[in-house]
Each structure stands twice: as C-alpha cells, then as structure tokens.
Amino acid sequence: METTQRTVSAPGTQKGSPSIALFGASGAIGKSVAAALREQGRAYRVVGRSAAALQQNFGDDPLAEIVCWDTDDAASMRAAARGIDTVIYLVGVDYWKFDQHPVLMQKTLEAAIAENVRHFVLSGTVYPYGMPTTGKVKEDHPRQPHTFKGQMRKQQEDLLMAADRAGKIRGTVLRLPDFYGPGVDKSLLDSVFKAALGGPRAMMIGPIDTPHEFVYVPDAGPALLALADNDKAYGRVWHFAGADVISQRQLAGKIFAQAGSKPRMLVFRKWMIRLLGLFDHFMRELVEMHYLQTSPVLMDDSDLRKLLPGLVKTSYEQGIKQTLAAMRASA
C-alpha cells in the first residue's frame, strides 16, 4: 500500500508553510496552477498518487511540498489535507473509469472537512450539461447529461455544492472547455501540433468545421488561483471560456501556417471512432462524447470576467506560437 510521505525543501528555503494544496497536481492544469503560485512566491503543496511524477514535476521547486496519498486509505487522505486552507481539486481518472469521479470526490471531501479545510475549488468540465439548448451557455443552463461521463461529473459537482450548502466547507467549480498548450498531450489538437512540426499526419475527431473553443492551459492556472483567492467566488459555479469561438479546421490551419508546413490531416468520423473502439479502449469510450463535436457547448463567461476583471486570455495566435516554441525547445 502506498503511504503518505512528504519531501520538503531544506529548512529556510520555503516562504512559510503552504496554505493551498493542489490535489492531482501532476496534470497539465495542476502544473499551470503551480506556475501561478511560483510567480507569486507562495508556498504550496502538491498531492498525487505517483511519488515519481510529483518528484519529476515539482522536486526542483523550493516552494513545493510533495505529499503522496493513497486514495484507499482515509488516514492518508486526511494527512494530505492537514494544515491546508484551500484545496484545488484536479484529480483525473482514466477515461474508462469515470465511475471513480464521485467516489474520489466524496472521499476527498470527507478528508478535507475532517481536517477543517475552509475552501474547495473543483476544476470542472462542460460534460454535466449534456446537449446545449442555447447558443451560448451560462452557468444556470440546465444540467441534463445524457452520457455516463456527464452523469458522473454532475454527481461530482453535486457532492461539493451540497457540502457548501450544508455549511461544511466553502465550495466552487470552474468549468473549462477543451484545452491546449505546451506539454498538453491530452488535447484534440496535440496531433496537429506534432504533424505541423514534421510528425505523422494529424488525426482529428470530426466534424472539424463546427464552432469550438479552447482554453490555453497557462491561462487556466491563474484563473483557478484567482477564483480560489476570492471569497465572493464560493457557493456557485463559474465558466472560463476559450479565447474565441473557432472551428478545429481554422485552428489547425493557423497551427500549420505558423509552423510553415503544409496541412496534413486525417479526420475521423463517428463510425470510424466506433470501429477503432473495437481495438482501443480510449476510442471506445470516446464515442458517447462525440455529440460535443456536432452540438458543442460554447460557454458564456461574462460573470467570471466581472468577478475577475484582470483575467488573461491568450489569443490563439500567441498560444500557438508559444506552444510550437516549447515543442521545438523540448525536441
């Protein structure tokens, strides 16, 4: 059984004990939040199931306190939350294990409440909405998920907001659309960037001419952190929309153009995804979410922009430029 452990920098190198913890820190958005904390010179705790991944991503940061938890051990989970004021929850699961989302949320909430954590921020998705009924979707749009994954994400949100209403902890959710950026390999655009830099032909999930939006991951971390720090944020859900509405084809065109290469794309239709799903677990699970390619959820984030007027959204042009530069540098 994996045990809770801490790897803390040498005494005197951290600026105070961390009051904020990133649960599921090793993912792309977790690393973005960590970068925002580093920029502010704030000590923080990173929590995850893989000690090796945490050490690789945060071991060189004197502001980071590393804690490895075992989600099957309540004592380990409580230890991960001990002494923390704010949890930013970014825990991911395999695409075929979405039934674990509400289970892990319940366990984490119980641990956080037992350790007197005051604030809990969930990084969410558009999945709980199901099929959109309006062109732009605000936070009060009905949540009627027709997919299993949407239902599990809805249950996850409901657990947190029920705890908030009961006065056990202050909770809030920031729903994000698809995302992209440096080091983000779990993106609809990952193979496009790789193809633009000379890799194999891009494999895209079609149709690719419908409206879509993407968040540049380095923008997501500061938004989550600003929300966590704002007392007015708690008790409700918020949206953080992409830089603009754009189609995948238009975005791919921008990526290939900036890379100076000729577009090379293979577009997968739903029947092709279903066929590939006979041999690939991930593709099989992707079929039920295909509606997002034909009936996209385009978010209205005007409420968040009023709450956080300094919110930064990197343009697609700049985001592409920075992503290509980072990929070239790491090649």
TrEMBL record:
Gene Ontology terms, MF aspect: aldehyde dehydrogenase (NAD+) activity
Record-annotated NAD-dependent epimerase/dehydratase domain positions: 22-232
InterPro entries xrefs: Epimerase_deHydtase (IPR001509), NAD(P)-bd_dom_sf (IPR036291), NAD(P)-dependent_oxidoreduct (IPR051783)
Superkingdom to which the source organism belongs: Bacteria
GO CC terms in record: cytoplasm
Record-linked Pfam families: Epimerase
Annotated protein name in UniProt: Epimerase
Organism: Undibacterium terreum
